[in-house]
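Quick question about two entries, pasted in order.
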Amino acid sequence: MASSDVKLSRLFRLAQKFNNFYLAGYQKGEIHPFLVEGQQVGLIKSDIAKHLLKYPEVFCIRDCEYTKQGIVELNPAFRDYSERTEKLDKILREIRSNDIFSALEGWRDEYYEVKSWDYKSLLKMDRSATCLFGVRKYGVDINGYVRHPTHGICIWLQQRSNTKETWPGKWDNMVGGGLSVGYGIHETAVKEAAEEASIPSDLIKNLVSAGCVSFFFESDRGLFPNTEYVFDLELPIDFVPHNADGEVQAFELLPASECIEKVFTPDFKTTSCPVVIDFLIRHGYITPENELHFTQIVELLHVPLQSLYTYKSRTEQNITENGHMKNNK
């Protein structure tokens, strides 16, 4: 980190902002692992865990004698994916009807698949509820850009509709969307490109995978441990995106240098900043020569979220590195 006598750059402060939860240093008593079928799939803050105590038929809240940490577990008596989904959905709808958590005001009957570390589907829940349980979320983002003859690389941005449940009216990447039930990563990118920006098939075939970014943001709605799969799409200079699903109200093409300034404004969606910064780094606009905190910023674009989802059951803790059970006699 920078020494105390060095002024923090705007980019570094922004990277700290979209990783405010990761950098907060919460104690174990304030955050609880959320388990489904014995596997940690989320993190729940104490104030939410206390409310879940009202539903003992669905949530088991107990202390773990091995980790000395309180855990919240979906009732292990639920037999399968369908039963877990049904029981949880019923409780979430009841909580939503009582206006307890602001996050559920964004309820949209769009489901998110909750999976284990080995990608087994455990249940699904409405996307609006995932931040209450700190469930790791995955999405796709497309950087649409053109090579302008006088302005150099220019980047397309979208302005979200004022009627969006989350971040209404904020500026965002040209295309972005979460992974939903039944869609793969590339498949989601193609679908969102058509819906949000009307990218035709002869252009979307040029989509290039550019890795991913990960960060852990907290807002008054909840926790957002996000991994975004990033794609670049070079577009013809005469192409103009237009929206097809009513979720975007405007598009704007900006030179890369102006795009940097855009992300610093309160009009830009905080959780979309990492994708823009990553693009500008990869294309040489942000470098170790012009950014004092370059290394720290790059690290904060790739937060190791898996390190926060490492709760192990008693059985797992008793397994040695070579796969045999320990002798506890």
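Here is the second entry:
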Amino acid sequence: MTATKKLHIKTYGCQMNVYDSERMVEAMAAEGYETTEDAGEADLILLNTCHIREKAAEKVYSDLGRLRPLKDAKPDLRIGVAGCVAQAEGGEIMARQPLVDLVVGPQTYHRLPAMLARVAAGEKALDTEMPEEDKFDHLPQLRTPAAKPSAFLTVQEGCDKFCAFCVVPYTRGAEVSRPVTRLLSEARALVDRGVREITLLGQNVNAYHGAGPDGRTWSLADLIWALDGIEGLARIRFTTSHPNDMTDDLISAHGDCAKLMPYLHLPVQSGSDRILKAMNRKHGAAEYIKLIDKLRAARPDLALSGDFIVGFPGETEADFEATLDLVRQVRYAAAYSFRYSPRPGTPAAERPEVPTEVAVERLHRLQALLTEQQQAAQAAMIGRETNVLFEKAGRLPGQLVGKSDYLQAVHADAPESMLGRVARVRVTVAKTNSLAAELV
């Protein structure tokens, strides 16, 4: 019998990369590979990369350099780079790091088995096309039991917004939505494998416009209502959204669909209309606030999170104060904030930057305000009841950990039989990043 080959995969960045890595694992399992956490025993190492963060490409090259001793010790070891850095850098990766055998973009990883066959024949394999074919049509069906009761499901890829700071349109391509029937089939397969919560993913997920089984184009709200009918699925979430695509039917779903969780990540990036225009966001601060009011009217307990970029080229102190004012009006339960850093090839990369010390000082002020709001949201949970989907054992004996309806980490004393189940709890202690609770 042929010995099982080992695959080690390292995933960088966003939830969509996590999903893509899971699908690559499934594809390679069909080729006789099983995963290993130990890169030293691997026959194939894949780095599934992300291009969003600062110096993303250099971090990948650094990691590749650390793999050199493994390659020297095992010449038959295959090393591949996948994801958005692969798409952006292409053949440059092989030129800088000859130990790399294959480079595959995020739209063509279904071709991995064929690329490995070329490598076995002595070639280097490069594929960063954006083909018309749907990669998901060529991937094996999900069969193995789910590792956790929550899972990701990519429903949409790419973005047509072309924000001035963002590389996504260049690395993931134009917006493409997957057909409804395939998504429902995959969702049912996930539930059959033990999944109870599905998070719908897309670079611009609420722009979803998939072909429906009734011949019309379905919105994200239509898809959510169809998922709501799947027996055994307890929770639905989605991320990441753009304010311009938050339609009335989707807002209504937050108020009417019991399985759609009361948590929404809705990036705004800045509170200054002047900066939003420079970012090419195509919405203003007042429009964003009005949208938040509509959402909270539909679902009063909705927990909101957002993204902020501080120190965008041209940002003045007045622009930054406008951002602070918006944050005070919205009151976020959680948020992600970053100092602007240029991405090669984006329009903003050619503009004069705000001095580093100014941007850093502003970021600290913003993060202090966001932390204050997050702590207030956590403290407001004390004494309240919420549902928790228990996902894994906690650090203490007899303890389980899961997520609340509002995506907060919650730990409680509970029997192991509660794993994978939704339970009602009462919050007893609130910390900055987690809650302690007791079963009701």
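Reply: The chain has a mean pLDDT of 93. The domain at 136-366 is CATH 3.80.30.20 (pyruvate-formate lyase- activating enzyme). Hope that helps.
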